[in-house]
């Protein structure tokens, strides 16, 4: 019920949701939850996040802090939110728009029962695919460079 009136709710379209009397802002799985905070709100109420995390206790395995970056000068408040998240074993996700924050919640919900393999990169076993994968892991090498190198040196 903390989230009634939150404009973020308009951007959660690919997952069903309902209001409930729960401790976290969002329950996104059997053992996953999220707390939402905007940096603007954090500046007005710097202790809010700490007290909300404390209310969760240890009831959830995955505790996500969904932070909406909605101000220009982010360094100090984002540092505070990051520090609070880390000190209390929470995962911090930052979104620069309400749409992005909504997509994070949807994605966590969609993948809640999927194995880790479903989000890992899949590469084919042929030589060119393995060669491309190996060379593009170097930061400044792209697929075009791989094709050029392959055609030049075989």
From TrEMBL:
Belongs to the ERCC1/RAD10/SWI10 family. It is found in: Nucleus. InterPro entries: ERCC1-like_central_dom, ERCC1/RAD10/SWI10, Restrct_endonuc-II-like. GO terms for molecular function: damaged DNA binding; single-stranded DNA binding. Its main location: nucleus. One of its GO terms (biological process) is mitotic recombination. GO terms for cellular component: ERCC4-ERCC1 complex; nucleotide-excision repair factor 1 complex. The keyword DNA-binding applies. Pfam families: Rad10. This is ERCC1-like central domain-containing protein. Residues 3-109 form the ERCC1-like central domain. Keywords: DNA damage, DNA repair, DNA-binding, Nucleus. The keyword DNA damage applies. PANTHER family: DNA EXCISION REPAIR PROTEIN ERCC-1, EXCISION REPAIR CROSS-COMPLEMENTING 1 ERCC1. It comes from the Eukaryota. It comes from Aegilops tauschii subsp. strangulata (Goatgrass).
